[in-house]
Q: What sequence folds into this?
């Protein structure tokens, strides 16, 4: 749906949805925009986005979400949640927890 919307808006987006990071990086030779989702079960889209950004040499990676900033707790459940505009990697790691990804399912700011 995202790929089709971009194409309909005139964005030069890849014609196919890649199934791997390697396939996605090759598609950048054809078009400046590539849309993809997860790669294999257990790989979250956050992790895939970061891996694709690194593999393609991207200057930044934007992860879209329905929350306007990073919070120290879930703002839907905690009225006192503190919003952050800028965080170091270490500060973000404190919020999301250990780097090991133990299982899919829980929602957080981004996957560890």
A:
């Amino acid at each position: 749906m995202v790929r089709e919307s971009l194409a309909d808006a005139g964005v030069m987006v890849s014609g196919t949805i890649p199934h791997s990071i390697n396939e996605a990086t090759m598609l950048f030779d054809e078009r400046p925009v590539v849309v993809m989702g997860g790669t294999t079960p257990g790989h979250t889209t956050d992790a895939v986005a970061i891996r694709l950004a690194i593999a393609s040499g991207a200057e930044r990676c934007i992860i879209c979400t329905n929350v306007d900033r990073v919070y120290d707790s879930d703002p839907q459940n905690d009225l006192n949640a503190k919003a952050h505009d800028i965080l170091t990697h270490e500060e973000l790691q404190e919020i999301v927890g250990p780097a090991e990804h133990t299982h899919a399912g829980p929602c957080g700011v981004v996957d560890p």
Q: What stands out?
A: The mean pLDDT is 84. Helices lie at 2-8, 21-27, 45-56, 89-96. The CA atoms of residues 1 and 35 lie 10 Å apart. The chain is about 30% helix and 5% strand.
